[in-house]
Amino acid sequence: MKRKKIGRTFVMGDIHGAWKALKQCLERSEFNYEADTLVQLGDIVDGYDESFECVEELLKVKNLVAIRGNHDDWFETFLQSGFHPGQWNFGGKGTIMSYLKHAGKEIVCFPSSGGYKTSLNASDIPDSHRKLFFNQSLYFIDDKYRCFVHGGFDRNIPFGNQELGRYFWDRELWLGAMNHAAEGGMVRNFEMETRFREIYIGHTPTTNWNTDKPMTALNITNLDTGAGHKGRLTIMDVDSKEYWQSDPVPSLYNENFRH
Q: What does the mean pLDDT of the chain come to?
């Protein structure tokens, strides 16, 4: 009897509409769309102007675990209400332009009491895309007790008792681990109400520390390597810890980065 192939498990950082970088990571890691698992840490949208293409590519992945990021949450607000929240000024133009292009519309924008409105309507978003964003998980814990979350969590209270926004907004977990490690502290001395074997996050770009490579502090690995800014997109095999990266994203988009 032929043995069924067991796929690898990968984790990928914040994409921010950079489809060309997404394709490079999947190709360079030799990702198998049928057998491998991809845990994507959120912020699929906002930044570069190929969010539509990013979602289409992710929908090809049979074993996709899509984690909600703060930018994805803003996009879902638009899908639910038809209004763009005011915060969507942070990278939202790229997402709007991407979907307008595929809807065959030109951009028109005007302010409103709910944020702002454009010529892009929630009904212009394909049902398969809407379903992906509506079904994103706040976090994922695998059978090896590894935690995958966009931002972080309050380590002083049980993991499951967080305010929902904490999972995709928190930066204190990462900054606390960085400080603790810098002072020579060990993982076992880093107080945490709910302990995990490993934790994978995005949300806080490693380019803030002048690197476009993944960073690890204690048992926490940060995979946001600045794809939404001037960095790269990263995909990592969570078992071997080998990782692959795109070219610097601005070089793929003629320096047309979101900020």
A: 92
